[in-house]
């Protein structure tokens, strides 16, 4: 971050103050208003922080107008095509893509942490079999600090790194076991002879009673889906992780907070909501009526998988996801998948409809991901869990960056109070 020599002068009544314009590598410059309360005795007002840079970061850059997504400077299109998820995880965590030797070493370290403490198996038994897997994720990840005490001293770099590696390694095991628990099948242990994506598919679909061979096309698709969901600047769940982390809470508790925030249908829960929406529409003949319902504000119905707070032309991840969707369906020999046909027709109609064009609403990362995951045999209730598996890498990288930032302080937004003025309790009460 550097100063531009430019500043904004604000005059409020008798008071005048100047706020310097700071600039970064790419994207919007920022007005440094850290002294605004001291100089002008006012707060800024930005509900939802849509126009607020809450931090400085070097990890991910998004240009919403141009549909650009960079991780440590590398375009998502190149990473999705040429990197593996562990290599992207290494990039997010350490800032550079690993060479072959570092990549092999990192994957080996991750593999050495894929097992859970055996007693953690008991966590699952405390849930009803019909519990939503995201509830199991929140509870189990939040409880990890009770087992991994040597990873919660956040002042110690080795401890921070150990917790980061443990979380990246263990989150697929917890996710797959959450699924197995809800379907009443035995847990499948991690296999260190498999890649990260292959191992997740194995823990999800293998059975102790028969051999399991991972389909390489599905494994590659899973690896790419994990890459596309790995990190995304200061979205709601990442901001939750940063805010929780700013209090000094242990990294496992912070990631559990991120999982809870991601669960909402406006955020990571959208991929599950897209499938429910497509099922509700049922047939392409019903699309026009559904679109009319979406346009009716009183209906409270939104086109799930459409729109984005930042992307206002297209979500680059959605384009890659759509291509992956066709690859997976072809590999599985699924011709004319009714859901995909419906989604493609819905997108065609929506992107030509003035209502959506005017509001810059286009498919986001969640619009096609659910169709791929469903075709891969992953139940709808596991879609957001998969999102959390991938985003754990982004969350913990952002958490580590924040903790290691010099002068890091507890986050504490203010408010505009519009409640009752001071009053005394009536004597009659
Ligand atoms: C993710 O932040 C991230 O980076 C998130 C994410 C990540 O990787 O972390 O990219 C992942 O969360 C993707 C988004 C998944 N959510 C959905 O698909 C749910 C459906 N989309 C929306 O609810 C909505 O688009 C949001 C939440 C994504 C964005 O909401 P905004 O920016 O607050 O938009 P808004 O609510 O201010 O809407 C602006 C207008 C409104 O209409 P008007 O009041 O101007 O008439 O657009 C309308 C909204 O009603 N609108 C929609 C709509 N999204 C916005 N109308 C119908 N369908 C939609 N999906």
UniProtKB/TrEMBL annotation:
Gene Ontology molecular functions: citrate synthase activity
Catalytic activity: oxaloacetate + acetyl-CoA + H2O = citrate + CoA + H(+)
Coiled-coil blocks: none
Transmembrane feature ranges: 367-390
Active site positions: 308, 366
Superkingdom: Bacteria
Presence of the UniProt keyword Ribonucleoprotein in the record: no
GO CC, one annotated term: cytoplasm
Entry keyword Acyltransferase: yes
Family: Belongs to the citrate synthase family.
Record-given protein name: Citrate synthase
Organism, as annotated: Ameyamaea chiangmaiensis
